[in-house]
Amino acid sequence: MAPFYSQPMLDIADFLANPSEVTRSISESVAIMQNGQVLFYAISPKAYMMNRPANAPHHALSPVLQQAPALTEASNDHTLPFSQYVDHYLVLEALRVERNELTEKSYKIIYYRLHKYILPTFGKVNIGDIQYVHLEKFVQTLSEQKIGGVAISQYLAIIRKILKSALLRQALTSLPEFPKVIGKRQSRGGFNIQEYLTLQQVSWRMRGTQFSYQNQVHLNATGLDQRYMEMSLELHYLIGFMANSFVRPSDIKMMKHKHIELIENEHRYLRMTLPETKKHGKPIVTLRRAVTIYKKLAELGKAAGYGRPDDYVFLPEVTSRTYALRILGFLFNWLLYETNLKQGPHGIPRTLYSLRHTSITFRLLYGQGIDMLTLARNARTSVKMIENHYASTLSGEMNIGLLQSKRSVRAVYK
Question: How far apart are CA 169 and CA 71, in angstroms?
Answer without folding.
Answer: 10
